[in-house]
Every structure is written in structure tokens, then in C-alpha cells.
Design a protein that fits this description.
Oligomer: single chain
Strand content: under 5%
Order of helices and strands: HHHHH
Keywords: Signal
Pfam family, one: DUF4473
Helix content: over 70%
Distance between the termini: 10 Å
InterPro entries: DUF4473 (IPR027913)
Number of helices: 5
Protein name: DUF148 domain-containing protein
């Protein structure tokens, strides 16, 4: 259902925290937008946790190709599994959010 680029969402949100490009929301704005759209708090919290995981984990491994490849593969699998476990409404809201920002 989702384009594989949805993983980039987390990296983009992480980068947006320090230098938000025009028309791209901050982490807090993203949380508010998803909540206002009707996403469950549990899904918002887990997506936020993934964002934090990427923000803290990737910089540690980015200089090592093998380690960064493993991090991205593990991270991507975990995110994909989580998204698949979300209820149908949250999945739809998340997909629409990604489409809105050109990430799906």
C-alpha cells in the first residue's frame, strides 16, 4: 500500500527539526497534524519514537557503510512492520500525510 520512500519521512522530519524547508512541518507540527486528522495517539507516539531512533542512531553509524546499511535495513523493516500493524484508518491517514508531503 505504501511507497518504500515512506522511510524517508522519518529522516526528513529529523532534518526539519533543525532547518525546516518551506512548507515542510516540524516534528511537533507533524504530530499535531496527524492528531487533528484523527490518528490514534499510540500510532503518533510510535512514529515519533521511530523519528527519535533515526535521529540518534543513524549519526552513530553513518560513517561506516556496512553499519549504516544494516541500520537502515533493520530500521526500515521495523517501520514497515509497525505501519502494517496500524489500524486501517491510521494507515490511510499516514499514507495521505506522506502523499501530501511528496514522500509516497
Amino acid at each position: 500500500m505504501f511507497h518504500p520512500l515512506f522511510i524517508i519521512f522519518f529522516a526528513a522530519i529529523t532534518i526539519a527539526t533543525s532547518a525546516a524547508p518551506v512548507n515542510f512541518p516540524t516534528v511537533e507540527e507533524s504530530k499535531t497534524e496527524l492528531k487533528d486528522a484523527g490518528m490514534t495517539q499510540a500510532s503518533i507516539d510510535q512514529l515519533s519514537a521511530f523519528t527519535q531512533r533515526f535521529a540518534t542512531g543513524y549519526p552513530v553509524v553513518q560513517s561506516n557503510k556496512e553499519a549504516s546499511d544494516k541500520f537502515i535495513a533493520d530500521y526500515s523493516a521495523d517501520v514497515q512492520n509497525f505501519v502494517k500493524s496500524m489500524n486501517e484508518k491510521d494507515q490511510t491517514l499516514y499514507h495521505n500525510y506522506l502523499v501530501k508531503y511528496g514522500l509516497a
